[in-house]
Amino acid sequence: MCGIVGYHGDGEAAEKIYRGLKKLEYRGYDSAGIATAGNPTIKVSKGVGTVEEASETGLDGSSGIGHTRWATHGGVTQDNAHPHVSHGEKVAVVHNGIIENYRDLKEDTLSHVEFKSDTDTEVIPHLLEKHLSEEDTIREAVTETVDMLEGSYAVSAVLDTGEMVAFRKGSPLVLGVGEDELFVASDVTPFLEHTDTAVFLQDGDFLVIDDGYKVYRDGEKVNRPEKKIDWDAEQASKEGHDHFMEKEIKEQPKTVKKAAYQDKTDMQEAKKMIENAEDVYLTGCGTASFAASLGAKYLREQGIQAKAEQSHELEYRSQEVTEDDLVIAVSQSGETADLLSMLEEVQADVMAVVNVVGSTLARNSDHRLYVNAGPEIGVASTKAFTAQIAVLRLLSKVFEKSLEDARKEILETAERINETIEKNRETIEDMSRYMEDREHVYFIGRNKGYEMAREANLKLKELSYIHAEAFPGGEFKHGTLALVEEGTPVVSFLKDRGFEHAYSNMKEAHSRGADIISVGKKSVEESRFHIDIPDDPNSEILEIVPFQMLAYKTSVRKGHNPDKPRNLAKSVTVK
Ligand code: M6R
After folding, report:
1. Is 238 marked active-site?
2. pLDDT for 236 beyond 90
3. With a threshold of 0.85, does the pTM exceed it?
4. How far, in Å, CA of 257 to CA of 248, rounded?
5. Right CATH number for 250-415 from 3.40.50.10490, 3.30.450.150, 1.20.58.100, 1.10.8.60?
């Protein structure tokens, strides 16, 4: 986690970095800071809290770095906030990731240094300063420094001379190339308003920026292509909405359609990979894992041997995934450490179903289908989830019909999203009022209703902080039913297939006093609230939208910030 921005150019660095950090706050918001260089020393402003704590006042200079933190090593304190400055004040550093051998480095190579923070990061500026004083060139100093670091990192550093360096291994780093200015950032959003040209650094690359930029690998200069990004700055702004999450929920009629417009050749290649695979494993984490699980069910309906497992667990069985198999890796960010780490362990080919263009997953996969949801800034995944479902559904449907026919069905579903919102608008409002004072909520569903229950449950708990759990409907009576008492909310997904059994599971809860929230084509007499879903072959896309809205509204009602739920960050780049 953590967001990094660096700037080198003709403008006021602090101002550009501050604006950039605001775009990256979704990556962490425990503390923030900016350092600028030149005139003639390094100046730092940092504090606990959101980016506002990193005031730009008094930070002159035309090169610098900034950081918004999601704490891993070291508590949330002023001293632990980035940037960290070397003891001779020659180098300031921001870092995303974990330096695993920082204790050894502190005790051995840097035993003479007085550390000011408890972070793993602080070893980096001290090492850089040491090597800059010992080596003839910046390139050699960075090579020496990187050689000593173990772990995962994306690092950007500014020297007191105004030159900058950046390097990455296991955490993302992108260079934005503008007219007379360069940006270094965790993703493209901080610089989209200035340039749409980006260079995606590869693991092991490092950058040196002075008059221009050079990319090195193992000490040798390498060429990395400059790519055009087709996201625009507008997509990454709130456009009049109170929160990004609200905007992203409402974008779904459009983003589901975009997801359905997959390139024919890409889909044919994806289909071929599935046909040629012995076993197909679908995987991801959090919300993406529920999409993966649905995807496996869609493929199984076509007679394909598809299994789903969350990436952090699949890693323990990686030896079972052979070179004859295929892994379909689902991820919004394409940077989730649990997923990337598992992929390193398996022999199989990898197909990515991913949103962020140029992400590590996208670059390292054998084939990729972009879900095309555009920047998703709210920490809670919404439009990326429905876009993932759309792509996975399309991928399964091409086994029974033409891509055009499969697409047409999804486009029709996208048209029904607004109808679903309108039909349920008042109920969602009433439900969020009702949820506000609840302590526990249970979600149940059978077959594909189970993934819907899990995702609706995750949305509600991550945003409202209400304790919520999801179960397969059939499992509920095997223990958890003991927790149901008068007025306990139980959300029950009543889908056509398996309706009778799902209905029985709901009745079992109702007869113990539960307040039933039913979800499906028709209301049942036991419902306290009913979420009405239009008849649709891709109903999963429609079923989740009211629960995204419920989670959003409950969060706002409880005075939380739905874009930045506590303790979370958008891309989880630590294991
Ligand atoms: O970027 P990814 O899709 O790989 O992220 C996976 C999860 O971290 C993510 O879906 C998380 O569960 C969200 N907070 C859910 O809203």
Report:
1. no
2. no
3. no
4. 14
5. 3.40.50.10490
